[in-house]
């Protein structure tokens, strides 16, 4: 989960789709651990001023209390807004200091009662997973990625999923021509009928590559027409700079990661470093600006980060030093003398 998005959520500066994405992540083991850790950090903060006769709250106990109160409110069929009445209880003083964090926590459990059917798939750094949606569409998620989706869609209903990270989609065409929309965290949407394509959505940037079929990309600007893509098209967009470009590529090479290979076609070493950070959580240092711009073309295995590093070192004649998750890439002595 993107830390910047979490901070935006707690500051109440996210869209409805972004809020749903965060809330769905809170429903995972990692999300629950994050909430407990954040509560504990808040309670141990130097600015925390609990009454001297009352011990600082326990995060696990508080989350459990919230769950029980929300369950009781649901049983009594109270309106959703009543589900945070625990703020008026003796814990009110705690809410004053924890503020939006506890409100967000309560909102999360209320959300899970309103949207209990959402499913969530998430991959760890360096891991991939493949699964089938209820409409028969196949999804392969790359490392450090997640997808939220409904367990089923009714006939005539738009099929919508929410992606954060990188995924390859093989979308099933339906007889009623129901749309299939992939929502990205940077306010971009990919709309298809039946096709195969690769999507990379990290922070403010996104890259969409069409393998077969036809899709259109909504860049989130009402003044900009939707971009219609043909097989072999790559569209890269940067939400912050509001810039994008289109180029022709080998679409199969762009999605080769799901077959255990990485195929480079004039890929800069800086782009490779960014991929290692996104997919494996590594910190990559390339001090030489010229080396950062050096382009690579070739194929190497990607069963693990170590096999990628070995492949880069051997195939492209680089000196790579690794200290845990910190990687330094340099020219070899031979390259430096050329």
Automatic annotation (TrEMBL):
Transmembrane stretches, start-end: 91-111
In this chain the FecR protein domain maps to: 123-215
Going by the entry's taxonomy, the superkingdom of the source organism is recorded as Bacteria
Q: Pfam families per the record?
A: FecR (PF04773), FecR_C (PF16344)
The Protein FecR C-terminal domain is annotated at: 261-329
Query: Which terms are listed as keywords in the entry?
Result: Membrane, Transmembrane, Transmembrane helix
What is the name of this protein? FecR domain-containing protein
Organism in which the protein naturally occurs: Spirosoma liriopis
């Amino acid at each position: 989960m993107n830390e910047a998005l979490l901070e935006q959520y707690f500051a109440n500066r996210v869209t409805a789709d972004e809020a749903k994405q965060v809330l769905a992540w809170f429903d995972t083991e990692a999300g629950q651990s994050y909430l407990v850790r954040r509560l504990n950090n808040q309670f141990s903060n130097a600015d925390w001023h609990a009454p001297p006769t009352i011990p600082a709250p326990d995060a696990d106990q508080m989350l459990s209390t919230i769950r029980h109160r929300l369950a009781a409110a649901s049983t009594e069929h109270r309106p959703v807004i009543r589900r945070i009445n625990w703020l008026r209880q003796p814990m009110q003083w705690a809410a004053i200091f924890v503020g939006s964090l506890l409100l967000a926590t309560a909102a999360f459990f209320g959300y899970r009662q309103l949207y209990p059917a959402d499913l969530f798939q998430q991959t760890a750094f360096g891991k991939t997973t493949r699964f089938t949606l209820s409409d028969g569409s196949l999804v392969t998620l790359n490392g450090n990625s997640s997808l939220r989706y409904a367990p089923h869609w009714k006939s005539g209903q738009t099929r919508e999923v929410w992606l954060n990270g990188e995924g390859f989609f093989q979308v099933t065409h339906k007889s009623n021509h129901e749309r299939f929309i992939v929502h990205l965290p940077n306010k971009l949407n990919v709309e298809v009928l039946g096709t195969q394509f690769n999507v990379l959505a990290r922070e403010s940037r996104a890259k969409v590559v069409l393998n077969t079929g036809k899709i259109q990309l909504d860049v989130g600007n009402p003044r900009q027409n939707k971009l219609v893509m043909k097989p072999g098209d790559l569209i890269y967009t940067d939400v912050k700079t509001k810039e994008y470009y289109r180029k022709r590529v080998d679409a199969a090479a762009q999605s080769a990661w799901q077959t255990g290979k990485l195929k480079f076609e004039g890929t800069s070493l800086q782009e490779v470093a960014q991929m290692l950070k996104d997919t494996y959580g590594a910190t990559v240092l390339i001090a030489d600006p010229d080396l950062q711009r050096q382009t690579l073309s070739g194929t190497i295995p990607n069963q693990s980060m170590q096999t990628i590093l070995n492949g880069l070192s051997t195939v492209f004649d680089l000196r790579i030093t690794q200290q845990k998750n910190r990687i330094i890439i340099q020219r070899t002595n031979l390259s430096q003398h050329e």
